[in-house]
Each structure stands twice: as C-alpha cells, then as structure tokens.
Design a protein that fits this description.
Number of strands: 0
Number of helices: 14
Distance between the termini: 58 Å
Radius of gyration: 26 Å
Oligomer: single chain
C-alpha cells in the first residue's frame, strides 16, 4: 500500500494532470487562427519528439521488440491511434466552434459509456446502483436532446470515442508513456503528410502567421504529453477509487470555462440535463467508494483470520513438541 507521502505526491500529480486537461480549451482557443485539421496534425506530429525524449530519459526501450513480434497487439495500437485521433479532432473542433459546454458533457458521461461497454463487450455484471446510474445518465441524454433541439452528438461522439479508446487499450496492455509513444509513431507520417499538403496549398498558419503561432503549434506536443506523464505518475501512487473521482476535475474545469470565459448559453433545460448527469455520477462514485470500503474490510478480516490460524497452528505445534519431549524414552 502506498505511503501517505506517496499518496500526497500522487494527488499532486493527479490534480496537475486533470487540471491541464481541464484548461486545454484555452490553449486550443489560442490556436483558433489555424484550422482544426492543422491543430490536430500539429498535435500528432510534435508529440513524437516529445515522446522520444521521455523514453530516452527514462531508458524505456525494452518493450518495443516484443511488441513488434505481436501483430494482434500492433493492430490494436493502430485502432487506438485512429480512435484517439478522431476524439482529438472532435474536441478541438468543438472548442473552436463554441461547443465547450457540450464537449464537457461528453467527458462527464464517459464513465457511464465505459460501464455500458463493459457490459456489452466484456460481459461484466453491474451492481444495482450502477444500473441506476446508467439509467439516470440515459435520461439525462434524452433531456439534453430536448434542450438542444437535437441529439447532443458532440458529447456522445466524444464519450463513445474515448470509451472505445479505453476499451482497446485494455487489450494492448502498455504503460502510459509506452502506449502514447507507439500511438504517436503511427500518427506521425499521416500528420506530417497533412502538414505538407497544407503548406503547399498556402493554408498553413504555421508558415504564414508568425513566430508566436508557430511556437504555439509546436507546443501542441508538450500540451499533449505532459498531462499524460503526470497521470502516469499519479496512477502508480493512488487507489483506483481516488483516480475515478479525480477524473471529473477535467470536465468540471471545461464546464466552468464554457460558462465564464466562452460565455456559452445555458438555459434551464440544459441545466436540468447536466444536473441529471451529475446525479448519475454521484450515484456511481458512492457505489465505487462503498464497494472499495467493503473490499478493504473483507481483505482485512481475511488477513486477521489468517494470522489467527497461523498463531493457533504455532501454539498447537509447541504443545505437541513439549508432549513428545516429555514422553519417557525406552531403551532398545
């Protein structure tokens, strides 16, 4: 079990990771002179050198050769890279098209979609409170559809792509830095080709909008990698139940930015939809905490029982040894 010092460090890294993810809309907004396609391509292309630097510093190269010998896992990495690319593009487009609040909704409902995927694809069984949370979340989507006058497709697409990404990553079984690095290798050539085409057409803001814009586009790699590295440092130090609660920080920050910085409309019917989502997440979190507490109590009881059994066996062994020692020895 991690020490209190490790847990404090893990919390700091967790707040840093989800905080950076939460304020990313501000960064993408700074790049609004560029098209979402150029921002995405820059993000993918500049992530590779950042990933290679981290691998070189940490000297983590041993995983590459075994991975290359496993075509199935490589195929899953390609799928993961494709799905997260779609997710990134939708998010960047949503932010720079005035849909920050709907984008935040997508990440609020993502845990509910992940649970549904677990039932559908992994044959997981849900507890009653988890079914309640999924039901309330489904009702929230219906309410939001009425509020928007359409299906909230941006939120649903973001939640579905990110949940799919998480599902695929389960089959890859690579660490955070390693998985990110391999995905950026796959993304790099298509991203580079896209940037070259934009440059040839004269549609590249990297080449035409000055040094500041070029530096911001190049910084996309750091903006992508740093939260992931902080998340990895947090994940090894914190229980999953704590990480599960921290994940709501990012969409909360996005929601606040949508209201206060981007001044997006929030009529009462949309508030009703968000409140239902938050209610579903509260039920889900309560169930997770209660289950974790029950599991810890059961584990502690099992350990206590095991220690008691060992102590009883030791006492019995001493009694038997003393009895054997007290028996009179007969001569041959």
């Amino acid at each position: 079990m991690p020490s209190p010092s490790d847990q404090r460090t893990g919390l700091a890294y967790g707040f840093l990771a989800y905080g950076m993810w939460g304020v990313l809309p501000l960064y993408w907004h700074l790049l609004s002179a560029a098209s979402p396609t150029e921002i995405l391509a820059s993000r993918m292309a500049w992530s590779l050198p950042v990933a290679l630097i981290f691998l070189a510093v940490a000297r983590r190269w041993s995983w590459i050769r075994p991975l290359l010998r496993q075509p199935k896992r490589l195929g899953l990495v390609v799928v993961a890279a494709a799905v997260i690319s779609v997710n990134w593009y939708l998010y960047i487009w949503a932010v720079n098209s005035g849909h920050v609040l709907e984008a935040s909704l997508g990440y609020f409902i993502n845990p509910l979609v992940s649970i549904a995927f677990g039932v559908i694809f992994l044959r997981e069984r849900l507890r009653p409170l988890q079914w309640t949370a999924v039901g309330v979340g489904t009702l929230a989507v219906v309410v939001m559809a009425v509020a928007y006058g359409r299906v909230p497709w941006i939120a649903l697409a973001l939640a579905l792509t990110f949940a799919t990404y998480g599902l695929v990553k389960k089959g890859i079984k690579l660490g955070g830095v390693e998985g990110f690095s391999m995905e950026t290798v796959i993304q790099f050539l298509p991203a580079l080709a896209c940037l070259v085409v934009l440059g040839v057409r004269g549609e590249s803001s990297f080449l035409s909008d000055g040094v500041e814009q070029a530096l911001l586009l190049a910084g996309c790699g750091i903006a992508t990698a740093l939260p992931l590295i902080a998340f990895g440092a947090s994940a090894v130090r914190l229980p999953l139940s704590v990480l599960g609660m921290l994940q709501y920080l990012a969409p909360t920050f996005q929601f606040v930015l949508g209201l206060t910085v981007f001044h997006e409309a929030m009529p009462p019917e949309r508030w009703a939809g968000f409140v239902l989502v938050w209610l579903a997440l509260a039920v889900l979190t309560w169930d997770a905490l209660r289950t974790a507490r029950t599991s810890r109590a059961a584990l502690a009881a099992a350990r206590t029982e095991a220690r008691t059994d060992l102590a009883a066996q030791a006492v019995t062994s001493r009694v038997v040894n003393r009895a054997q020692a007290a028996e009179p020895k007969t001569s041959a």
